[in-house]
Design brief:
It is a single chain. The chain has 250 residues and is α/β, with parallel strands linked by helices. It has a single domain (2-242), classed as Rossmann fold, CATH 3.40.50. It is 44% helix and 15% strand. Strand 4, helix 4 and strand 5 (133-138) form a beta-alpha-beta unit. Helix 3 runs parallel beside helix 4 (102-130). The relative contact order is 0.15. The model has no long low-confidence stretch (mean pLDDT 98). The structure holds NADP nicotinamide-adenine-dinucleotide phosphate. NADP nicotinamide-adenine-dinucleotide phosphate (NAP) binds next to helix 1, helix 4 and helix 6.
Length: 250
């Protein structure tokens, strides 16, 4: 059997890969043979992460469609194709809904949903032209359930949007060689969840409502991302895979 999990030589863009889940996905894909392009707004850590991965860094703000177009133009000029896109960049704010300022609502939606769409649209164009490609969107269990005790309505809505965007694009592009799937993690120990872990009430709620009784590690997401990006999942498109220590089973 050929190695269906191989990403050998595949040109792979991972947004928000400077740190956290994105970095671990990039490492797993690198191990599977991919050439990684780190597309991140963090111009300080991003280049270091890219160097660690033996890949490229392209300073990118996913909320800005011109920045996303420039990213795609640069990768195409350098490599001539894009095989895999991982939309991982994301942000959260925990403001009670009645107090969320307009700008905060728009910013969260802008990074988490608009950003995913701009990247899918621009990378999708070059994948469709070539008739092949695999897109993995990092959604969240928050797109399926509403978290508690912390308030985060904008985040939850944005992730529900990512799951439906994944299904919409999958349906449109399946017959043209481009697959689109989503990963929905539960609580993972990264800078994003640090505030929650440092808040005893949140930490206790998170751990007691997760059957496995712990947070996931970012490295535990990488193998699933490799599976969805590679030919190992050749009959999957439009799927949303929960990986949450059992959280949504209870
Ligand atoms: P993280 O540690 O905060 O990393 C997110 C990365 O995205 C950072 O490097 C950040 O850069 C970058 N980024 C933010 N805004 C950006 C923009 N406009 N353009 C480009 N890059 C941008 O977060 P994480 O926990 O690894 O989360 C990664 C993804 O998994 C997110 O989509 C998140 O919603 C999702 N997720 C996380 C969890 C969890 O429990 N951690 C659970 C479910 C889903 P800066 O540091 O400069 O902002």
């Amino acid at each position: 059997m050929s190695d269906v999990f191989s990403l050998d030589g595949q040109i792979t863009i991972v947004t928000g890969a400077s740190r956290g889940i994105g970095l671990e996905i990039a490492k797993a894909m690198r191990t599977a043979g991919a050439h990684i392009v780190v597309a991140d707004i963090d111009a300080e850590v991003g280049p270091k992460s890219a160097a660690e991965l033996g890949g490229d860094f392209v300073h990118t703000d996913v909320t800005d469609s011109a920045s996303v177009k420039a990213l795609v133009a640069r990768v195409m000029a350098q490599h001539g194709r894009i095989d895999v896109l991982v939309n991982n960049a994301g942000v959260v704010r925990n403001t009670p809904s009645e107090a969320v300022p307009d700008e905060e609502w728009r910013w969260v939606l802008s990074v988490n949903l608009d950003g995913v769409f701009w990247c899918c649209r621009e990378v999708g164009k070059v994948m469709l032209e070539r008739g092949r490609g695999s897109i993995v969107n990092i959604a969240s269990m928050s797109g399926v359930i509403s978290n508690h005790p912390q308030p985060q309505s904008a985040y939850n809505v944005s992730k529900a949007g990512v799951i439906m965007l994944t299904k919409s694009l999958a349906g449109e592009w399946a017959s043209r060689g481009v697959r689109v799937n989503a990963i929905s993690p539960g609580y993972i120990a990264t800078p994003m969840t640090k505030k929650g872990l440092d808040t005893p009430e949140w930490r206790e709620a998170w751990l007691s409502t997760t059957p496995m009784g712990r947070l996931g590690e970012p490295a535990e997401i990488g193998p699933l991302a490799v599976f969805l990006a590679s030919d190992a999942s050749s009959f999957m498109t439009g799927s949303n895979v929960l990986i949450d220590g059992g959280y949504t089973a209870w």
